TrEMBL record, chain B:
<protein>
    <submittedName>
        <fullName>Pyruvate dehydrogenase E1 component subunit beta</fullName>
        <ecNumber>1.2.4.1</ecNumber>
    </submittedName>
</protein>
<dbReference type="InterPro" id="IPR033248">
    <property type="entry name" value="Transketolase_C"/>
</dbReference>
<dbReference type="GO" id="GO:0004739">
    <property type="term" value="F:pyruvate dehydrogenase (acetyl-transferring) activity"/>
</dbReference>
<keyword id="KW-0786">Thiamine pyrophosphate</keyword>
<dbReference type="InterPro" id="IPR009014">
    <property type="entry name" value="Transketo_C/PFOR_II"/>
</dbReference>
<feature type="domain" description="Transketolase-like pyrimidine-binding">
    <location>
        <begin position="4"/>
        <end position="181"/>
    </location>
</feature>
<keyword id="KW-0560">Oxidoreductase</keyword>
<dbReference type="InterPro" id="IPR029061">
    <property type="entry name" value="THDP-binding"/>
</dbReference>
<keyword id="KW-0670">Pyruvate</keyword>
<dbReference type="InterPro" id="IPR005475">
    <property type="entry name" value="Transketolase-like_Pyr-bd"/>
</dbReference>
<dbReference type="Pfam" id="PF02780">
    <property type="entry name" value="Transketolase_C"/>
</dbReference>
<dbReference type="Pfam" id="PF02779">
    <property type="entry name" value="Transket_pyr"/>
</dbReference>
Length: 318, 326
């Protein structure tokens, strides 16, 4: 991977990290956020690595832990933050909140909180891309709980049968709700399930952004060559609970500490420093500029007006 | 006018819309080559006419079929997917209820989902309760959907063409009882607007609000009652969502009496919504209690006499009408 591209990847991960850490602060300390807050802290390499391998016209379908996916795909931090606050200026006018953000401007067409609910939709967007003979792909994110849903099975079977240009990304953060992987399935690797659909299944270190990028880029090429879908399992870890209201009683403290030592942001940072691609000074400057973007987004959200109550009636039908 | 069945009318609508708009495609179980291959079935011959890229026989995967429509429609295609029988709606329902109906709202009005889910329904085929179960009230309980349930071949054709051109998700429910009897259908291109009810028979004494296959039962009852000097006005809703409230209220202002007829079971049925509307918005015009003639609160039974017991008939309707007139 070229240094320039890798620095972009690092920047994307830094933005996600700062964004999520700010949300923890806003939620737990300042208590400013309404409703559920579900964060992807520690999983930045999956969002950034996969999105770095996509073109702007490629589609993403996301799940409840979506902030990283959206920001990495190019969503505007201000309007995403305002949506999380439930403000009028939010990218969905306050209709979706943190859980269901859609940013059609960057082809982030659906975020769904129904576990596995986005997978059939990704089959549909990939079908449209194939039908219109476009050189585009769909990338569908879900966690390690989703492959236990029937929608996963139906969708992967159909996508493989029709050679649809879709990349299924299982973001395995060890937990499905409060259940560890070994408590909800007997398979060791979710990617093994791909064999049941005659589809390539790939396991990658989900904390290695470059490895995630490479696996996605290869899967994308297979899609464009008409060879159909790939299931990529990115093994990573959820630093926070399911949501910020989760006390993480089921997550051993030493396990969290071990994974924090394997921080994906620090990993790429070390690699860039070792390659001489970036200096400590440049890292400080980058962090500063990212922190400012996030501060600006919070200010934008806080200063934005609430939607007028009657606006609840809009946008149901075309 | 041509004399065709509702299945053939649906087929004409599909073929005409596919010729008109290359973004229209079909998907479903056995819609290309089916186990019930017959000229009366709505997708008969379309695979030969339009090819396998536009007529997609799918695996038996209702959730994926419905999701296929959701995803394809947000990128501008106009999918018309089929859920073989209404009870299988349950298997597709996450995609229809949580996604098709809500994603536009969740996008803040930025995205649209111009898709049609065709659903076959109706008791009377000895298919039992897991193939026969009218669930239109479920769909009508989901803001964001439109729900269409035609009672004639002519309406089915015009309404389906409108549904395909509509930018919202439409659940289009076809009673298979109407697949086998030819009725007049206009020649050539026409559409019928969604959300507009139709007075199928004007009458001064009682308004019978009905839809789908029960329209025929209403006509039989009206003929019997007419001989006894009672003139029934038959209002065919055609669309449940959005509901043509004005048409119902206008008819009630004229007749002052309301009987609702539907095949679906009684409790939680859509008839309750019509009754509530009459009481809320037309109470002062009512001269008698509102009555419902519906399927009883049981699963559709198998044995022919049991199944016939389930399906509302003209005699029950005659009795209900007389009870509010006399």
């Amino acid at each position: 991977m070229e240094n320039k591209k890798k620095i972009e990847l690092y920047r994307s991960m830094l933005l996600i990290r700062h964004f999520e850490e700010k949300l923890t602060e806003l939620c737990r300390i300042e208590r400013k956020l309404p409703g559920m807050v579900i964060l992807c802290t520690g999983q930045e390499a999956v969002a950034a690595g996969t999105c770095a391998a996509l073109e702007k016209d490629d589609v993403i379908i996301s799940n409840h832990r979506s902030h990283g996916h959206l920001l990495a795909k190019g969503a505007e931090p201000n309007t995403v933050m305002a949506e999380i606050f439930g403000k009028k200026t939010g990218c969905n006018k306050g209709k979706s909140g943190t859980l269901h953000i859609a940013v059609p401007e960057v082809n982030a067409l659906c975020t769904t909180t129904v576990v596995g609910g986005g997978i059939p939709i990704a089959v549909g967007t990939a079908f449209a891309q194939q039908y219109k003979k476009r050189r585009q792909v769909t990338r569908c994110f879900f966690g390690n709980g989703a492959p236990d849903e029937g929608s996963f099975h139906e969708s992967l079977n159909m996508a493989a049968l029709w050679n649809l240009p879709v990349i299924f990304v299982c973001e395995n953060n060890v937990y499905s709700g409060a259940q560890r992987m070994e408590e909800h399935t007997k398979v060791k690797d979710m990617a093994a399930r791909a064999a049941g659909y005659a589809m390539p299944g790939v396991v990658v270190d989900g904390n290695d952004a470059e490895a995630v990028f490479k696996a996605t880029a290869e899967a994308r090429l297979r899609c464009l060559a008409g060879e159909g879908p790939t299931l990529i399992e990115c093994k990573t870890y959820r630093w926070r609970g399911h949501g910020e209201a989760d006390h993480q009683a089921y997550q051993p403290k030493d396990e969290i500490a071990r994974w924090m030592e394997r921080c994906p942001v620090k990993k790429i940072e070390r690699e860039l420093l070792a390659a001489g691609a970036i200096s400590n000074q440049e890292i400080s400057e980058l962090e500063e500029s990212i922190a400012k973007i996030v501060e600006d987004a919070v200010r934008f959200a806080e200063e934005s007006p609430w939607p007028a109550p009657l606006k609840a009636l809009d946008d149901v039908y075309v | 006018m041509q004399q065709i069945t509702m299945g053939q009318a649906v087929r004409q609508a599909l073929a005409e819309e596919m010729q008109r708009d290359p973004n229209v495609f079909l998907a479903g179980e056995g819609i290309g080559v089916g186990i019930h291959e017959s000229p009366v079935m709505p997708t008969f011959g379309l695979l030969r006419e339009f090819g396998p890229d536009r007529v997609k026989d799918t695996p038996v995967s209702e959730a994926a079929i419905a999701g296929l429509a959701v995803g394809a429609s947000v990128l501008g295609l106009r999918p018309v997917v089929e859920v073989m029988f209404n009870p299988f709606f349950t298997l597709a329902s996450d995609q229809i209820v949580n996604h098709a109906a809500k994603l536009r709202y969740l996008s803040g009005g930025k995205s649209s989902f111009p898709m049609v889910v065709r659903v076959k329904t109706g008791a009377g085929f000895g298919a039992g309760c897991q193939h026969s179960h009218n669930l239109e009230a479920w769909a009508a309980h989901c803001p964001g959907l439109k729900v269409v349930m035609p009672g004639t071949a002519a309406d089915a054709k015009g309404l389906l063409k409108s549904a395909i051109r509509d930018d919202n998700p439409v659940v289009f429910i076809e009673d298979m009882g109407l697949y086998f009897f030819p009725t007049p259908v206009p020649e050539g291109e026409y559409t019928i607007p969604i959300g507009v009810a139709d007075i199928k028979r004007p009458g001064r004494d009682v308004t019978v609000v009905t839809w789908s296959k029960m329209l025929g039962v209403a006509f039989k009852a009206a003929a019997i009652l007419s001989k006894e000097g009672i003139e029934v006005e038959i209002l065919d809703l055609r669309t449940l969502l959005p509901l043509d409230k004005e048409a119902i209220i206008t008819s009630l202002k004229k007749t002052g009496r309301l009987v609702i007829l539907h095949e679906a079971t009684r409790t939680g049925g859509f008839g309750g919504e019509i009754a509530a509307l009459a009481v809320d918005e037309a109470f002062s015009y009512l001269k008698a209690p509102v009555k419902r003639v519906t399927g009883p609160d049981i699963p559709v039974p198998f044995s022919p006499p049991l199944e016939q017991f389930y399906i509302p008939d003209e005699h029950q309707l005659v009795e209900a009408v007389k009870s509010v007139v006399l």
